[in-house]
Amino acid sequence: MALRVLVTCPPMLGMIETFRPLIEAKGMELSAPNVVQTLSVGELIELVPQHDGWIIGDDPATREVFAAGRNGRLKAAVKWGIGVDNVDFAACRDLGIPIANTPNMFGGEVADMAVGYVIGLARETFVIDREVRKGKWPKPSGISLAGKIVALIGFGDIGRNTAKRLAAAGMHIVAYDPAVSDVQGQESVTMAVWPKRLEEADFIVVTCALTSSSFHMINKESLLRAKPGVRIVNVGRGPVIEELALIEALQSEKVHSAALDVFEQEPLPADSPLRHHQRCIFGSHNASNTTDAVDRTSRIAIHKLCEFMGCL
What per-residue confidence (pLDDT) applies to 311? Predict the structure, then answer.
């Protein structure tokens, strides 16, 4: 019986015909369901046990799902990409399921989007675009980047790449990351302990992973401490920001504007109050999605899965 591989990662699925020959050349069968963002626990419990390998996206890869998989055919899994907050690695260890992720894949790509969002908020390009489409000719006065201070939450691969790009624009970065103390080679970066110096920041840029310590780091208390008119960018994980607190801060104009590639609930619910705020730019958890990045990450994910399952 041929090994069967389930792929539930939307960026990889978007280019799946590129990878199908690679998977099939290893003697494996590919399952590529239609996934908008994630499958539900119920859907995964139905699908995962039918497969020997699983390349995971942002799905709820819970203990319940892995237990169902272990009781079926599941032999190994790979989390596509960097973030692992949705995957119960402890359950995999307990159940004897080999698993890995693909770290340090998207630092440049996500940093590019973070800087794009910073520029969009600084120069209000989103306002101009919307108004020109209506037949108007707006000329909002933005703010310059040079000399502005960025509170950068997270100084891993994405954070370091973001800092390099922002420094090139003449910005000064105050970085927050309890796992990092060395900023050698980045003269425009100083480290601080959250939330010290937050009141100095013109921008808050989130690039960190979701952990117990980063959950709701940006909340009502920290937003009260922030500078009036601060601009916020999130290309990390949605729950780093407490959305209700952000909505209140947007309403009071304590926060000037926000660019969010990620949300507490994804896709963004149709009734989310965020949709009513015109000074927001929304993404679709897509900052890492370039053909180049998807290609190299998917090939690494396939290779790791093959290593686990002995089909190299």
Answer: 87
Same domain for 250 and 126? yes
DSSP state of 156: S
Q: Which amino acid is at 32?
A: A
Which ranges of 49-152 would DSSP assign to H, the alpha helix? Answer: 63-71, 89-95, 107-123, 125-133
Cβ atoms of 177 and 156 closer than 8 Å = yes
> Locate tokens 């009781």: which residue?
71
User: What is the mean predicted confidence (pLDDT) over 215-227?
Assistant: 98
pTM over 0.90? The answer is yes
Asked if residue 294 and residue 271 are part of one domain, the reply reads no
My answer on whether 66 and 146 are in the same domain is: no
Report the amino acid identity of residue 93. R
* pLDDT tens per residue across span 126-169: 999 999 999 999 999 999 999 999 999 999 999 999 999 999 99
* Percent of residues, the chain, with pLDDT higher than 70: 100
Q: Encoding tokens for residue 125?
A: 């390009």
**CA dihedral angle for residue 194, residue 198, residue 204, residue 209, rounded to 10 degrees:** 0
Integer Cα distance of 111 and 106 in angstroms:
8
When pLDDT is cut at 50, 70 and 90, the band that residue 182 belongs to is confident
Residue linked to tokens 């000074």: 279
d(CA 7, CA 73): 15
User: Both 98 and 111 in a single domain?
Assistant: no
Domain shared by 22 and 131, yes or no: no
Does residue 184 surpass a pLDDT of 90?
A: no
Cβ–Cβ under 8 Å, residues 93 and 113: no
Containing structural domain, residue 139: 107-282
Q: What is the CATH number of the domain that holds 125?
A: 3.40.50.720
Per the listing, tokens 């980047």 go with 145
Q: So which residues are the catalytic ones?
A: 237, 266, 285
